[in-house]
Design goal:
Layout (H helix, E strand, L loop, with lengths): L8 E5 L3 H12 L3 E5 L3 H5 L1 H15 L5 H9 L1 E4 L2 H5 L4 E4 L5 H14 L5 E4 L19 E6 L8 E6 L5 H13 L3 E5 L8 H17 L5 H12 L5 H8 L1 H10 L5 H14 L14 E4 L2 E5 L6
Parallel strand pairs: 1-2, 1-4, 2-3, 4-5, 5-6, 7-8
Antiparallel strand pairs: 6-7, 9-10
Helix pairs in contact: 1-4, 8-10, 8-12, 11-12
């Protein structure tokens, strides 16, 4: 562990599947966290989200205690006012949808309201941080810290600078990642998708292509993959963990899109998102879940 970064006050923008995990990850590590979202109804869902997450912490976080988890919840406050949410932040972590213009708009507001010392971090899954760094007004303090889903267990933190990022800010971000119990992965050259998604997305797209072209059902594709390779899960289980909303947003943000990719997104919206069955967070996606464990394939997706 490096020396203390003195980065205590954290604001997370967006409280969806991954944003809420980031909030808890920081709070459980002892940080004071403000969870921001655009509607109070989104923030009202966090109480239920904490209890969903608690089940995983009990099973998968060795040092878990009920008292420590409750103390983490007590360190979390919420806000629907952006300027208020970032006004005292040492670190701002953005986890809003993968839309370049939206990110530019959000970061312009953050840059105008955050203190001069604040480190500005994006969790963007596929966009290049340098494409919206200037919108912050402080590109020297802006870079990426990318979290993996199920962050308490899959606790990598990919740290990636833009050409304008101050190297000292990069190093403090590495230290901050360690403080919130991440394993920092230094990305030495800016690239879409970092290392994780640079490997993961082509694999997921190959699985989607097989399904869209009518080759096999999701459960059979997963079964073939897991039995043949010994992997713990298949691509459609990963789609459920990531969440359909994130997948659709990533597909929409691509410079080069394919008819198959667009068709898959349409199916995710029609059969999943619009039905409230958008993955593990809803309890139903390509699989039906009980206590976070897949118990059967969702018949809605059978060819």
């Amino acid at each position: 562990m490096s020396e203390s970064t003195n980065l205590q006050k954290v604001t997370v923008l967006g409280t969806g599947v991954l944003g809420s995990q980031i909030v808890m990850q920081a709070a459980y590590a002892g940080k004071d966290v403000v969870a921001y979202d655009i509607k109070q109804e989104f923030l009202d869902k966090l109480t239920e989200r904490w209890e969903w997450m608690r089940g995983y912490y009990v099973a998968e976080v060795p040092e878990y205690t009920p008292e420590k988890f409750d103390a983490a919840i007590a360190r979390i406050t919420t806000s629907t006012v952006l300027a208020e949410a970032v006004g005292a932040a040492d670190v701002v972590i953005e986890a809003v949808p993968e839309d370049l213009e939206l990110k530019k708009s959000v970061w312009a507001q953050v840059g105008a309201a955050a203190p001069d010392h604040t480190i500005l971090l994006t969790n963007s899954s596929s966009l290049l941080p340098s494409d919206f760094a200037d919108a912050t007004g402080h590109p020297d303090r802006f870079l990426a810290l990318h979290f993996a889903n199920m962050v308490w267990r899959c606790n990598t933190g990919e740290v990636m600078a833009t050409p304008k990022t101050d190297p000292a800010v990069f190093e403090r971000t590495v230290g901050f990642a360690e403080e919130i119990n991440l394993v920092p992965i230094r990305i030495l050259k800016e690239t879409p998708g970092y290392v994780l998604n640079g490997l993961l997305i082509p694999w997921l797209e190959a699985a989607a292509l097989l399904y869209v072209n009518g080759v096999a059902n999701p459960a059979d594709i997963d079964r073939d993959w897991t039995i043949s390779t010994g992997a713990p899960g298949g691509p459609f289980q990963v789609y459920d963990v990531v969440g359909f909303n994130v997948v659709v947003a990533i597909n929409a943000s691509k410079a080069e899109r394919t008819p198959e990719g667009d068709k898959f997104s349409e199916m995710l919206v029609e059969r999943g998102i619009s039905q409230g069955k958008a993955g593990l967070g809803d309890g139903v996606g390509f699989y039906e879940y009980e206590n976070g464990v897949p118990v059967r394939p969702n018949p809605d997706w059978e060819l």
